[in-house]
Amino acid sequence: MSMAGFTPTTALIANEKRTPAWDAQFRQAAEISYRQLQLLAGAPGYGVYWIDSYNATDNPDPQPAAGRGGGAGENDLLPDSLRPGRDRDVLGPGEHPFPTKYAVRTSALAIEPSLYLEALLRDFAIFGGKIVIRKFDTPRDLMSLPESIIVNCTGLGSKAIFNDDELVPIKGQFTVCVPQPEVNYRASGRMPGATVGASINPRPRRHPGGELHGTR
What we know:
Strand content: 15-25%
Oligomer: single chain
């Protein structure tokens, strides 16, 4: 994983699969996770911090937000206080270095997985948690677990376990670049001549200091 952030509406399910109960549960989960990440921002060892994010564009007007595959977006699910772009600052020609007419600056929570995941494992162990590595081939294998609550975080492994043919990767490729300390912001924008939806997204990292560029 290259870089993470608070993006709860990324890759939402399709509208027809949602229910009022699911929406309420989603909003509650988003509010809890955002509150906890805010408490971790700046704390040593967790890799969570605030960062400026720039969207290079020729159209500064807010675009309708939607999940992938025609699903709903943050305008439908998130309260005003959690919606991306709530503190957007539009920079006009001559006010930014990007090759577009405008650049929209917003604040975002950044999470560096190499630090954050290690911190989660450390805290998990401190509170008495244990890690057991085992393989599950079918849903029936899960019934052998003694725990009463099971959280499915198997990623693409769920496709094989649950025979889920709809499960597909949603991210593109990334390239690790030479460290550039002066790049202390995120950026995104359409690639010249690219098809709709294709973009390049530079993502700085404080640890180990490299620069990541994601494409999709």
